[in-house]
Amino acid sequence: MPIDPLTLAAMSGLVSGLVGGCVNPFVSRTMKYGARWLSDRFSGHPREAIEAAQRNAVNFYGQVNICLDGLQHIEGFEEKKDQALSDPDYTSLFQEAVLGAARVNSEQKHQLLARLVTDRLTAEPDSLRNLAAHMACNAVPQLSNTHLKLLGALYIIHHHSPPSYILRLPYDERIDIGNEWFLSEIAPFVAKEEITDLDFAHLTAVSCITFVPQLTYSGLGGSSEPGCWKLPIVVRNKFVSLKELYRLPTPVKEPMIEKDQNGKDLLSIWDNSDMRKATPTPAGSIIGLYVRDSSIR
Questions:
Q1: Residue 238, Cβ neighbours under 10 Å: how many?
Q2: Whole-angstrom distance, CA of residue 211 vs CA of residue 200
Q3: Which end of the chain is more exposed for a tag (fewer CB within 10 A), N or C?
Q4: What are phi and psi of 70, to 5 degrees?
Q5: Which residue from 207, 203, 235, 208 is spatially nearest to 219, judged by alpha carbons?
Q6: 118 contacts 67 by C-beta, under 8 angstroms
């Protein structure tokens, strides 16, 4: 069923309602292309499915509008928007995002896809963020809420840096305060559902994680299991350099991840699944970062 101008006008009106009446011109322009992409992709589908896809696309465009408002202060941003629609790589990414968003009735996924296409406007052409955007865009519609939580958790564990004031504390105090900070940051992303190795196999299949362990150091004391597979050691190494670690007297204090229930649940998932072997790919890290950021808004 082709999408006629009346339907496009109706979609524009719905987006206007979502964002309080002020639709960014960039959104209006991309919506015209999006209407054609939706028409081509869902041709022959039941009317109900087409209407649901249109509603999902409207919600996605509303999120794009919100994201754009937060970027207007960037110098030269208007020019970047104009240039983007002349770039086939960008328009391909936007097409992937529109069609992916249309498939899922999920505000969180619409937010993630909107941020992918708007952040891409400010990325350097050959940057890793730019190159990974397509893979992340394809992955988001194929991830459950549990998978998004896992990527948020893995991002915090492997890539989220602690505040600088914690790093200036004496070692033992740094570990205690750092542990509190870590447990607070990780709490929203500790899955309460059953997690199995199939979840991590799926994350691998959509290019969000790899099973090459992050190289960290168990330090002193030794163990037959790699130190990078022990969560307290991975967390400890967020707060101490290798040079400092080897100057410390043994035994070296480690974070007490099991201090609260979320920590106990996280340790259970870590110790009983392939989570301890998983590291986010660039695409998985982008998604994990965005999931983490969306939890603090």
A1: 20
A2: 9
A3: C
A4: -80, -5
A5: 235
A6: yes
Contact 242, 235 (CB under 8 A): no
Distance CA 204, CA 278 (A): 9
Nearest-angstrom CA–CA distance, 30 and 32: 5
pLDDT tens, residue by residue, 70-125: 887 887 788 888 888 899 999 999 999 999 999 999 999 999 999 999 999 888 87
Q: What is the average pLDDT across 7-21?
A: 58
Under DSSP, is residue 272 helix (H, G, I), strand (E, B) or coil? coil
Amino acid type, 102 = A
Q: Is the separation of the CB atoms in 255 and 240 below 8 Å? A: no
Kindly report, residue by residue over 223-242, the tens digit of the pLDDT: 445 556 789 999 999 998 88
Q: How many CB atoms lie within 10 A of CB 127?
A: 12
Distances (CA, A) of 38 to 27, 97, 103, 245: 15, 11, 10, 56
CA distances from 295 to 121, 184, 212, 264, 284 (A): 23, 12, 28, 21, 17
Cα separations in angstroms, 164 against 116, 160, 168, 195, 240: 28, 12, 7, 33, 12
Query: Coil, helix or strand for 209?
Result: strand
CB-based contact 142:215 (threshold 8 Å) = no
Cα separations (Å) of 103 from 47, 55, 58, 83, 270? 14, 10, 12, 28, 32
- Euclidean distance between CA atoms 179 and 254, whole angstroms: 9
Which of the 8 DSSP states describes residue 120?
G
Among residues 118, 143, 140, 144, which one has the least CA distance to residue 129? 118
The neighbouring-strand residues paired with 210 are: 279
